[in-house]
Amino acid sequence: MTPTEKDTETLLIIKEWITKFGWSPTVREVADSLGLAISTTHRRLDRLEELGWIERGQFQSRALRVTTADWGS
Predict the structure, then answer these.
(1) Which residues contact residue 52 at a Cβ distance below 8 angstroms, ignoring those fewer than 6 apart?
(2) 21: number of Cβ within 10 Å
(3) 9 close to 47: Cβ distance less than 8 angstroms
(4) Which of 8, 25, 39, 57 gets the highest tally of CB atoms within 10 A of its CB?
(5) CB 45 within 8 A of CB 33
(6) 3-60 pLDDT, tens per residue?
(7) How far are the Cα atoms of 1, 3, 44 from residue 13, in angstroms, in the given order?
(8) CA distances in angstroms from 2 to 5, 6, 8, 18, listed in the order given
(9) Contact between 31 and 41 (Cβ < 8 Å)
């Protein structure tokens, strides 16, 4: 599966948040940063998980974890 521009954009939002605050953003914070609906953001996060770029903890807030070494840069 080849990453898209949207995949990279979403990953960079997560990376910037972690760099700035020291913890991962919530799904709502990612959605707000991208100007997207929560459902659309969930689909983007699902895709990043499929690509192996992130992992998400179930039933936890701020459970996004970047797994790719280059963080999409």
Answers:
(1) 67, 68
(2) 11
(3) no
(4) 25
(5) no
(6) 899 999 999 999 999 999 999 999 999 999 999 999 999 999 999 999 999 998 877 7
(7) 21, 15, 12
(8) 10, 11, 11, 24
(9) yes
Residue pair 23/62 in contact (Cβ under 8 Å)? The answer is: yes
Question: Which amino acid is it at 69?
Answer: A
Please say if the pLDDT value at position 73 is more than 50.
no
Angle between helices 5-21 and 27-34 (to 10 degrees): 120
Residue 12 to residue 9: CA distance in whole angstroms: 5
Which of these, 11, 72, 71, 73, lies nearest to 44 by C-alpha position?
Answer: 11
Tokens of 69: 């070494």
Residue with tokens 């953003």: 25
